[in-house]
Amino acid sequence: MDVQEAVAEGAASVENGEVKRDGRKQFSMGPGDILEGKLIYDGSVHADGRLEGEVRVTGNIDVASGASVKALLEGANVSLKGNVEGAVTARDKLTLGKNAKLSGDIQVRRLQIDDGATLNGHVRMGDFEHQASGQ
Amino acid sequence: MSTRRPVSRVPTQVPAENGSNGTDGRNSVVLGPKDRLVGQLYIEGDLRVSGTVDGALEATGDIEIAGGGKVNGAVTAYNRLVVGSDASLIGGEVRVARLTVEDGATFTGRVSMGKHKAEVVSEPAPEVQPIPEPIAEPEPVSPPQDWGLTTPKRKKGR
After folding, report:
1. Distance, in angstroms, between B78 CA and closest chain A CA?
2. Are B60 and B76 spatial neighbours (Cβ–Cβ below 8 Å)?
3. What is the pLDDT of residues B46-85, one digit of tens each?
4. A114 vs B: CB within 8 A
5. Residue B65: helix, strand or coil by DSSP?
6. How large is the ipTM?
7. What is the pLDDT of residues A10-51, one digit of tens each?
8. Spacing of C-alpha A45 from chain mean position
9. CB count in 10 Å sphere of residue B86
């Protein structure tokens, strides 16, 4: 409940590059967009184009099929359809789509890997000792 | 309804469920829900696990863990590994060409995909000359630990 309220307030004030969806903020990148650096975001991220660095969000992360990601990713639900190099933490569920390629260690609570996906890395599954902010 | 079956080759009736020698000429082994394996298993063909395995599995075809199957140990599938939604794989090393993990499955381990070349400890045996025995214990799976099943090796002098 706390998170919901905080997000709603933030969404009212900030508007650039963001799409409001169900009262939650979404940071959406297009196929030609490039993000390098560290993004800590109270909302969800749709990643396309090129992404390098570190992304930690309270909501979900969704990597499009044409995207190229070299980053540490952390989110509640993480859905990968493109190329990702780097560690991935999904506080709830990680989904690797059939065209996803992931090189990196992953920590998840739930995991779904579709046939055709490629994974190289160490998988840890279970609950998290450090919970997300606001939970 | 014409069964398109060559007259010369009458297939032997194989029970569909329990046991080896499965479909399409491909060997298939099933470990049922009440079955339990401790040790190493190497299969030329497919393997389906609904029971409990403590040890290392290797199959030249597919491995499917489903129906409440639990595997604790390394898994190598030359083709495909499927971990069903009610199954569990707590593996050390998971080496597969294709991988499907259904939502709900328990899956832990180190996954290697792609460059699979059966590079699992193929000892060249430089000093000892190859003993001309037809069955020379291939040892397909590198033993992660001593399961107490190691056969005593005979070393021949000259």
Report:
1. 14
2. no
3. 999 999 999 999 999 999 999 999 999 999 999 999 999 9
4. yes
5. strand
6. 0.79
7. 333 344 456 665 667 899 999 999 999 999 999 999 999 999
8. 6
9. 16
